[in-house]
Amino acid sequence: MNSRSSIWFGTRSYAASRLPAQPASTDPWEQALALYVNGLGPSKRQQFQAPATVDECLQTVVLNGGRRRAFTRILEFLRPLIDPLRRFEGAIDVVVQVSAGIASPIWGPLRVAITHLATLEQLVVILDKIAQSTQRYENLKTLFADHEGVRDAMGRLYCELLRLCACISTYETSRIRYIMNPFGKEFATVGTAIDQRAIEIDRAAQAAHFQESKAARDRLLAETREQNIRRLQCWLAPARVEDDLQRLSGYRDGSCAWILQADEFRQWYGPSSDEHGAADISSLGGPLNTALQVIGRPGSGKSMMAAYLIRYLSQCGTTLYFLFNKQDSERHSMLHASRTILAQLIHVHPELTENILLAYKNSGRVVADSLVEVMSMLGQVFSQLPRQPGSPSYYIVFDGIDECKDWSSSQYHFRTSLPPEAPVKIVLLGRVSPTFSSPDPVSPHPLAITMQPSKAVEHIRAYAEARIQEMTHLANTDLGTQAVRKTVEQADGLWLYARLLLDEMERAPSREVVQACLDSLPNGLEELYNHILWTSEAKMTRPEKEFARYLFLCADISNYMPDFLAQAMDSIQRGMLDLVFRFVNGGNMPFDAPGLAEKLGAPLIEVLRPTPLTYELRFVHLSVYQYLADPSRYAKAGDLPELVQTRQARDLYRGAMAVWYFTDCPDSMLHLEALRSNDSSLLATEWPDSYFPMTYCLWDALKARHNYLLCLSEPLFQEAEKMLDVLTHFLSTDRCLRWFETATIINYAGNFQQLQENILSALDVARREKGTGGGLRALYNFNRARFNFLQHWKAIVQITTPWEIRPELSRGSWGDETEMLPGFFEHGLGEGMLQIAREWSAKLEIAHKMPRGGRAGSPMAQALCPKCSAVMTQRDLEKHRIVGCRRNRRMW
């Protein structure tokens, strides 16, 4: 590098403003390295000089991928970057041969960042920017050695990478600052600078007159195109709907073919040109972009019909599809659907990617997270499709639109994003819903087909006969014939009912049990679920019933987790399920947690094991989730099954479990110690999987109204009173401080006002319930303890954070109350809470940002009266001293 490069290094180094003066050296690479390394501790300096390898990083990503689907996506994103990045490292190796202190900083920071997904995503984007500019040059090492311009440009990039290393080191040594959002403005500036340096490398390499043979250029061009497509596929993060489509391909022959003869389908589809119904764009009947609705009850086989139509329409043209699933965080919104449809379209037409590639490069995100942007790109691609006679037609199939959380608000925008002349027709499948009873904006003239029970009767009969023939003790018997007949009659066209009922018969231990089942068949899915649970609990021991009660209590995490967290966690994960079973088992782990869950939850809950060391749960059908969400509405006769009775007081059961976690469970103490010490090695990778579900179980209990208690059965009522006592003791003593401190560190470190929102919403309920108890001692005491605890936490937050109460969170005059209740400090709890909050407010550098716009030391800054615990401004506190506070009328 020339002398100007040395000046640039001296002025642009990330650490130049805070490190010792630049050492005397003739090598600007060593100067830049010294500026960075001098700012590191001995262990970090050693890590940098012996950096990680790409294989170590990929292995760590693979291990994390067993826990999170997003890590699998990152792994797919990384693979095409490896060779270009190795070329960059190979060029740096030229310097390494001269100075052993110089090393490639790429893989070391990557290994550090892997444990935190948000950090990893941002870092991979930066690496991709480097790879894009270096992937073309096979001989980058030679260019670097022979051409000063290339060496100078790479030196600038190297210095930016050192800045990145500094940010990563800050993250690792002060992880508490980045606990939820490790990359902020600091990393955004590094990413922008690296993007510019990567472009400079590309320009310098071109200026070096690097001559490539035609064959090499063609090969590298093809390689670049393929890698760009892979980048786009990873950026769009399409849901793995092909796996579900494969699972659904087992529909019985002929069971879905009736739809092809329906008048509505023929009108929507138009005339066919061959025996497969293949049609070109000129023969499509009706207006384009119209939608055909297929409506069916839960369990009637809509998803199987979707699989059949996808297969059938694929013989007629290009078929794009998406299967919504409310339980899957990657498949429950129109953003997920639009990204998947766009990714499928790119796979069919890879030549139409230039505009999308530009959007990707400008996004700076690993995943396309803007619905408007994705829909716009989808419209651009469709506008480029051929539309002349003879061109293939395009179909889009959406299954389970009632499981899409934003279907009503987004469907119109999806349709209008498609060009009016685009050769597209849409199929929508969903259950009966008010959405379908009014004209659908997706189609100006909607066509609808209802899946009638009569269409499925004969096919369900054939299915039942085949299943019975596989059962040794029922095949070719009168009882087997009776089982088929009654199953078909009671199923009433519901495939799921027939399947679950036959599963019960298959597990029956004797002919007498089968006969008893047939003599009292349930009506509909809801009664069938009751029947299955009654049958299951009859076979369980008392300990197994207790495990099963909490399994069905906690399996549906979206019932107690906020949307922004439930979406990220999909379903109950290993960490949380292990804790649930440990709680039931007196704090000890059972022998085989996933095996136990599989045994107790079957056939309504499935256990997925992506790796031998990980597992998660999901319901076999959405209707099971709906049944569990409010089982009492389905109890048409008799009592609820014992396994789901606890859900009548689910907030108390979960709250008492959370109290155990934050008091007696050693895991929560380990997590708190890790936060206190800021030691990333102590932060178990799965701790968010347990902390966040448990803390929101506790918030659920604090926000609940308990007027249902008087309706509980006597055994449940007695259990509820005990749990109220547990919660009261927790909120009234220092046992709550572990939870209080953990929540304080996490929310203060990330400046997350969700803490304030939770306090205020719970306090709103507590204020309404304070002083009430319906004559129940335990409930009265809990309501009083809950109000006192939350009122003081609110005041403490106002004193120690810069957060103001937003108007939408103030639900009455109490929103302006800042006075603490008398006596709160007498037993030490309030003093302990305030001390913790002040300590972390100072450590995390938010103490000087006083609430309500006041500056520290200014008359408007808030202060606390140590006598009566009232919160007021500094100016009012002076007056308070003169007048005297209500707890002590004497002058101070």
Description:
- The structure is a single chain.
- This protein has 892 residues and is mainly alpha-helical.
- Among the domains are: 209 residues, no CATH class; 211 residues, Rossmann fold (3-Layer(aba) Sandwich); 48 residues, no CATH class.
- It contains 39 helices and nine strands.
- The chain has a five-stranded parallel beta sheet with strand order 2-3-4-1-5, with helices on both faces.
- The longest helix is centred in the first third of the chain and has 26 residues.
- The chain starts with a helix and ends in a 9-residue tail after the last helix.
- The N terminus and C terminus are likely disordered.
- Keywords: Repeat.
- This is NACHT domain-containing protein.
Entry keywords:
single chain; 892 residues; mainly alpha; Rossmann fold; five-stranded parallel sheet; two-stranded antiparallel ribbon; 9 strands; globular; disordered N terminus
Q: Percentage of helical residues?
A: 55-70%
What's the number of extended β-strand segments?
A: 9
The termini sit apart by: 71 Å
Kindly name the structural category.
mainly alpha
Query: Low-confidence runs (pLDDT<50, min 5 residues)?
Result: 1-26, 174-183, 272-287, 434-443, 680-685, 810-818, 847-861, 886-892
CATH class of the domain at 241-451: Alpha Beta
| CATH third-tier fold name of the domain at 241-451 | Rossmann fold
Oligomer state of the chains in this structure: single chain
Shape: globular
Portion in strands: 5-15%
Q: How large is the count of helical segments?
A: 39
The whole-number mean of residue pLDDT values reads 74
Q: Supply the CATH superfamily name of the domain at 241-451.
A: P-loop containing nucleotide triphosphate hydrolases
**What topology, given as strand order, has the largest sheet?**
2-3-4-1-5
